[in-house]
Amino acid sequence: MSEPLSALMAISSALGRFNKKMDRVLSVHGISFTDFQVLEQLAQSPNQVMSRIELAEATNLTASGITRLLLPMEKVHLVEKEKNNRDARVSLVKLTTTGNEVYQNALVTSQNFSDNTMQYLTAKQVEQLRVLVGKLS
Amino acid sequence: MSEPLSALMAISSALGRFNKKMDRVLSVHGISFTDFQVLEQLAQSPNQVMSRIELAEATNLTASGITRLLLPMEKVHLVEKEKNNRDARVSLVKLTTTGNEVYQNALVTSQNFSDNTMQYLTAKQVEQLRVLVGKLS
DNA sequence: GATCAAAACTTGAATAATCAAGCTTTGATC
DNA sequence: GATCAAAGCTTGATTATTCAAGTTTTGATC
Known about the structure:
homodimer, mainly alpha
């Protein structure tokens, strides 16, 4: 097996484990890792508003997947629908106050868990890892 | 957002993309990336035989997930069941000749794709990436 | 040799995500 | 201003996966 494939399989496996653990630690906030990624994206964006297509792109989900992921999040008022006056096709997703609170709490949990996951790496190595991963096409 | 969390989110996203692309490129062989991981594990193991529990561990799936993943693979004869004479609880999974052929072909495809994914990394960087990921706990 | 907790599954029910098809709206072109 | 391809969704059907519960078998302990 070539080194690149072998390396990618190992990384994929390690990240698979990480994703599942994230799901478990975030479950105390009543959200999945994917939910967290959505909250994260919204919290980061200018007016805490994004279109479903933008969210799909950011989370590696399909438009369909986003529609279905958001349904329960809307039901518990983490996010809410908003119209785009310039384009009626677009259904905007806005972070609510509740959503932001849950995000802030989940952020602390996620950071603690991530710090722990990377405890055997120096700050420089973390940066290096990020740079190397950034080179993947 | 802390650096470790930010880095892990970026890596997770990059690997999410990679996994989906792998699924797409492997679909020409009629298998998913998860199927490939199973074939890979079996091909690598001593007698091309493993228990379901070992496969579950190696693929980050549950025992239940493995049972259901293998059903269609058994149906198209990529793998077959075998008894463990020492322990009747165990249901062994054996790579068939057909399975090995599909694996060899899929391996070429996977390697090409992986080489391409890592084309902007030197051999040393690939190795470095693997070492850094290996430090994640 | 009986008892019993734990291991290695399988199965039913539920959740997560996809794909393909369809709907509405947009923006460009005639 | 009509036409039409493409964008931005939503929905039905399907696949992938999980969890919880149940089954059989094992191995240790009494």
